[in-house]
Amino acid sequence: MMAAAVPPAVAVEGALGRTLPGVWIQPQGAAIPPGPGFSFGVLPIGYMGRIGGSRLVPIAGAIYTNVEVDVSSNYLVPQYVYQTGSPKVSLASSMLAPVNWVSATGSLQTDNLSLSRSATNSGFGDLVFVPLTASIHFSENSNLAVSTMIFAPTAPFRPAYLANLGMGEITVMPNFGYTYMWKKRGIEFDSFVGFDIYGENRTTHYTSGTMFHADVMAIQYFTPRFGAGAIFSNLTQITKDTGPVADLLDGFEGRGWGVGPEVLYVAKASNPGIALQLRWVNEFKVSRLLKGNVLVFGLSLTLK
After folding, report:
1. DSSP labels for 116-145?
2. pTM attached to this predicted model
3. In the 8-state DSSP scheme, what is residue 170?
4. Could you report the per-residue pLDDT of 253-262, keeping only the tens digit for each?
5. Cα 126 from chain centroid (whole Å)
6. No. of H helices and E strands in the chain?
7. Which of 11, 111, 207, 224 is the most exposed place for a label (fewest CB within 10 A)?
């Protein structure tokens, strides 16, 4: 419709996919405790982003420009660790249930018109299932975790709507993480690598390209309970979007970087364990994705 008159479109439908920079990596994320038990976490995430310059954005089967989005997602995260009988391997199952609030503005592009639109929506988002996470303990300080996250299209989805709470498609994210504790220096290193593999949105027939993302984090502990550090993140789309709208916009791949601080405080070590974290990740060198800031405040409760 307007593809020849404006810059290339963003990639990943909505320019805001399943992954934000620095969100999925967690302190000691690969070091699942070997003993059985239940834990419960709350992970509030805030995001403020925009993409201007008349860049085309495919959203819910329509095309928008000058999009600004504010998102608040509150993930409820129950997890259960199984009894394995081996100190070298831990197995766990978990789920993430998001309660979302979305506010968005943009200009809907038609054949001859540009119509200003705004929308606000709240409710449950797409549920995320992690059927099994395997944590391998090479030593007390060195741990590797492997799992697959499955995003189910459980939230309502409306075509051409700016503030959908879900993406209307199933997504599979194979991933692995690594945690190393340098206890002598009070330093922790974490990493997380994943691939977001999107299915087709049956309503819009849009399929977002596969997104590779990698996060690294370093934390210096000043006391056994308090630490601070930094997160560095990269998102790189490795395949193009496909579908009628994506083909019209040439299916360009998106990419971006993020960096920011992390603060961690263990309020209670056990019975129950209570830990708090706060992080801010600022995006930079972003291409064909929304650009903004990610805020995370995490609370975890471990029952043994």
Report:
1. EEEEEEEEE---EEEEEEEEEESSSSEEEE
2. 0.90
3. -
4. 788 999 999 9
5. 12
6. 1, 14
7. 111
